[in-house]
Prior knowledge:
- This protein is α+β, with helices and mostly antiparallel strands.
- It is built from 9 helices and 10 strands.
- It is 35% helix and 26% strand.
- The strands form 3 sheets. It has a 5-stranded antiparallel sheet with strand order 3-4-5-7-6. Strands 8-9-10 form a 3-stranded parallel sheet. The protein has a two-stranded antiparallel sheet with strand order 1-2.
Amino acid sequence: MRDGKLVATGQTRARVYRLAAIQEAARSYPRAGLREDVVWNEVFAPIVADLPQSVRDIWHYGVTEMVNNAIDHSGSEQVHVGIQRNALDADGWVADDGEGIFLKIQRAFNLYDPRESILELAKGKLTTDPAKHTGEGIFFTSRAFDVFDIRSGRLHFMHDGHPPDVLFERPQDAPGTLVLMRLANDSARILNDIFAEFAAPDEFRFDRTVVPVKLAQYEGEKLVSRSQAKRLYNRFERFRHVVLDFDGVSEIGQAFADELFRVFKNTHPTVVLVPTNMTEAVARMVRRIEADIEASAPNGG
């Protein structure tokens, strides 16, 4: 277009229009001795300098958290960063050439499959270096941005709210880790409000999480076994309030439901489990377990 806001790629019917970049920057840094505040000031801050303070706050938080993760965890020789801004939003990325985040978590926590790493990341409070990190950076960054992607190995984890979390299998293995972040230039989101959403009332501690149950369900599986429920509720005891988002789960088995809603609750009575977005089949199974619990209680309830 003449105003430069749209650019076209491809020919005739395959032509695709997209918003043109109006500002962009990219750079690679040696990881040894790197500081995340230097990366922020040299690459990202100038591109978002004229945006609202609340938007700059989100970019500052997300960029410094992701760069710090790459510095402390990747083992890569270099850290690659960049940002591209158009008339509506900006896309930023942080990449490294290390082992890969999902494989590193799998190895550190002795998980069966790297896909379990994504489930654990989605819960929050996960870190391979508790002396230096709280395990909150990826959790809150994923919720602060409009779109948040992590791509590593054959796995691609996306959080964009529609639906909240999606796991893709990639056709080819890719080394290292790539984190992508997108945020509208006029976003009304406030970073402190996001922190408060996952804290207990009148407290500042990260005590509440939302867990996408479908991340415990691999392709071709149904959630029917106790082992799947145990995989799901691993580390739930670190929270007081766990929202179980059943979006994308059509049904669950009796053993899975019993392990989650009776066995876990009996051994962790201070953890509140709140199921949401249930199909009628899922809700029916949850009600069945609740009825069994009530019937087995002293004096029938």
